User: Fold Sugar isomerase from Streptomyces griseorubiginosus.
Amino acid sequence: MSVESVSAQGFAEQSLDVLRHVTESAHEDVRRAAGLIADCIRADGVIQAFGTGHSQAMVLEVAGRAGGLVPTNRLQMSDLVVYGGDAPSVLDDPLLEREPGIAVRLYELAAPAPQDLFVIISNSGVNNVIVEMALHAKSRGHKILAITSLTHTGAVPAGHVSGKKLVDLADVVLDNAAPVGDATVSLPGGGAVGALSTLTGVMLVQMAVAEACAVLLSAGLRPPVYVSANVPGGFEGNLELEKRYAGRVRRTAT
Assistant:
């Protein structure tokens, strides 16, 4: 690996190759993911999206964005403070996601309905809070859509006492095709730069949402989709759509 190969163009070429692979190979899995999303919407459910670290970028793609579905919630560690009454200092712990019992508390604070779908996003798919959330949601009868790296999760040990990984618990898995460690451009002497999972994860999320909307339209249903609040009438129109899910969809400043 030469210094010259570490560049913006190098990263762009590698990431675009992977994006092409993902869009060409994931059609069947995206179709199945869209089926879960559409079934949830038709059952008057809410999509509960959860991830930690940089996986929160994909959670933001699922929940509460222009062009996205209205019945969506973003579950996050800060819910312990905002809704659970914990002191803000609890979030100072960088290893909080490894603490047992956290996911169960986040679940209870969200108070999901039985028909709600859980979208759980984790590149490694092995962190304790991720697996705990999947286990708890599954035990409550929820369907689970996972977005993860099959390459990474297959190369690392399980981090939960159950020995399970996110892929073991999901009804549908979307593989973000990221390498072990996420970064794509190798550096001379070791290490790498240029993380990939956010790019491919966002692509998979948007593909699944678009396909779910196609399923709903084919059934004669109008998808409940957000309009940008920064266009005339957008904010007011979104408030009307949210009324259907009053008390079930949380929107806070980000």
The chain has one domain: 3-244.
